[in-house]
């Protein structure tokens, strides 16, 4: 897997960091601990927020566990908060807001699972330690009792955090069998935290991967998006492929290994794809740039851009290998996979379009494009142009420095021409020189299919020859109308 940059810290260093971070939490957090303690109930900050305290990362969600039952929690939060809600009460969770701070408080649980569903049969527990043991990974099974600030770590989470290791609190086979989505969460946390996965846990991921069939596509999609927009998505994807999880979630990615060629007639498409992802991420911009990081559409297009190659690989005479029209096949496969994962229509359309267009640039360096071809490139890309620039550049993974420099120079030239044309004619707003109403007036026809045909003709003329002006456009329109 790819190298991580997060340094290992000792347990003592982690404790010092967490103690400092705890003191920086909003005062109302400690105040809430007092509210529960005053009536004899325990309250503890739990899960991801505690892990983030140790890692000195921002804590966005404030999740608490308590010995109080939901009715009692609801009453206590109502007395403390500006506003509270009980949408998750059947699962023991009550939410509240005080000022800008939003909290969720859940009664200790000791759930049991139906083998045909990942939804637990909710059972309330008696102890914080028991509640922590039911969680997904040891690094998420730590707590801080409030208001005392006592760290609670029954499963060795701090040790695993120090070793940058993902490990389940109970036997991984049982944990993943209870809730198969935890398999995806293992891959996601590997990408998000830069951690390794303990060997037995990895084996259980492989063994239990078929259980992902009982998880809704929407939940799998959510984990996949979080993985891909993490700091180290390559780590998560490599883990999914290594453990065969990708076979059930993103089989097109693991399928790229089928193009590995022991005779070295073409590059390793799987490794190439992961490199393209890395390089595309490097081309993302800051928040004020055209493609702010992390950009899911660009990253997923990088992952999917060559998935059509296994289906289109052909061995040609002379030992050459071809992948004709793999971009078209890949775009169709991308749409199909994203629909199955319940992605929204616009995101699906954008990613598939980038896959379809990712080869359009090739050949520019060998044969000069007309202004018309440049206009069509921009028009076909539409609002995806900046992403297409980055995907095309990232797609160059050759070790031949001369070839890489030649391709970069060619794309520099294309971007220069796009900028010049855009400045001259506001390329992104290309329209025919005549409106639909003007076409109907000139041809003396009502709204009809012919108006659309005339509009398309004038748009093609505009693309081919640049701005014509209304007079010249009228002459060409009348000539077209006469000859049609």
From TrEMBL:
Record GO terms (molecular function): ATP binding; metal ion binding; nucleotidyltransferase activity; RNA binding
GO biological process: RNA repair; tRNA processing
InterPro entries named in the record: HD/PDEase_dom (IPR003607), HD_domain (IPR006674), HDIG_dom (IPR006675), NT_sf (IPR043519), PolA_pol_head_dom (IPR002646), PolyA_RNA-bd (IPR032828), tRNA_adenylyltransferase (IPR014065), tRNA_CCA-adding_enzyme (IPR050124)
Superkingdom, taxonomy of origin: Bacteria
Occurrences of domain HD (ranges): 269-410
Organism this protein belongs to: Bowdeniella nasicola
Name of this protein: CCA tRNA nucleotidyltransferase
Record bears the keyword ATP-binding: yes
Cofactor (UniProt): Mg(2+)
Alphabetically ordered keywords of this record: ATP-binding, Coiled coil, Magnesium, Metal-binding, Nucleotide-binding, Nucleotidyltransferase, RNA repair, RNA-binding, Transferase, tRNA processing
PROSITE patterns with a match to the protein in the record: HD (PS51831)
UniProt keyword Metal-binding, yes or no: yes
Coiled coil (UniProt feature): 404-431
